[in-house]
Design brief:
Elements (H helix, E strand, L loop, with lengths): L1 E2 L11 E5 L8 E5 L8 H17 L4 E5 L5 H11 L4 E6 L1 H11 L5 E6 L5 H5 L6 H10 L31
Helix pairs in contact: 2-3
C-alpha cells in the first residue's frame, strides 16, 4: 500500500502509509513488522492501519512504513534518521526493535516500542506490556528515557546459524 499527499520524490520503499494531520512539533517515523509474533500476515498488516487511526485520533503526523523483509527495519530507520525524525517507533518483536535501535545508536533520535513479538524480552524487561493501542500511544507521547547499549566484541561465529545469547543483570 502506498499513499501520499506529498508530491516531492522520496526513496522507494515497498509499502508505505503516509499520514498527514495537524503538524505535531515532533517528527515521527513508525516501522511496522506485519509478521512478528504469532499472527498471520493479514492480521499483521492491519497494524499499520491501526497506527494511522491512532495518529488521527491524537491529531499527530507520522510516516508509517511496513517492513517487507528481514533487515528492512534498519534501512527504514536509517532513512528516518536522515530525514530528521525526532522519534522512531518500532512496532514488532525483539528483532524489529534491535534493527531500529541499531540504526539510532549515537543519534539524538528517541525510540518507542510497541511489543508484538513472540517473546518481547526487552519490552517485558522495560515493563511495556500494555495493550497494543495503549502501547502505541505511549510510544508516541512518553517522555524519553535511556538504556545502556553494548557491542559484541570479537569475530563472527563460524556457524552463521548458531546464535550465542548472553544475558546479564547489571546493578549500580
Amino acid at each position: 500500500v502506498r499513499t501520499s499527499s506529498n508530491p516531492r520524490p522520496r526513496a522507494p520503499i515497498e509499502r508505505t502509509i503516509r499520514s498527514y494531520y495537524t503538524s505535531s512539533p515532533m517528527r515521527i517515523g513508525v516501522v511496522v513488522n506485519p509478521i512478528s509474533g504469532r499472527t498471520g500476515e493479514r492480521r499483521g498488516a492491519r497494524r499499520a492501519e491501526l497506527a494511522v487511526a491512532i495518529l488521527s485520533r491524537l491529531n499527530m503526523r507520522a510516516d508509517v512504513i511496513v517492513t517487507a523483509r528481514a533487515g528492512h527495519a534498519v534501512e527504514i530507520a536509517r532513512a528516518f534518521v536522515a530525514q530528521g525524525c525526532d522519534r522512531i517507533v518500532a512496532w514488532g518483536g525483539d528483532g524489529t526493535v534491535n534493527e531500529v535501535a541499531g540504526a539510532i545508536i549515537g543519534t539524538n533520535v528517541g525510540l518507542g516500542i510497541v511489543p508484538c513479538g513472540s517473546g518481547d524480552g526487552l519490552a517485558r524487561s522495560l515493563g511495556l506490556g500494555a495493550p497494543t493501542d495503549l502501547s502505541f500511544e505511549r510510544a508516541l507521547t512518553a517522555d524519553p528515557g535511556g538504556v545502556d547499549v553494548g557491542r559484541r566484541l570479537g569475530a563472527r561465529l563460524a556457524q552463521p546459524r548458531l546464535q550465542l545469547r548472553l544475558e546479564l543483570d547489571v546493578a549500580d
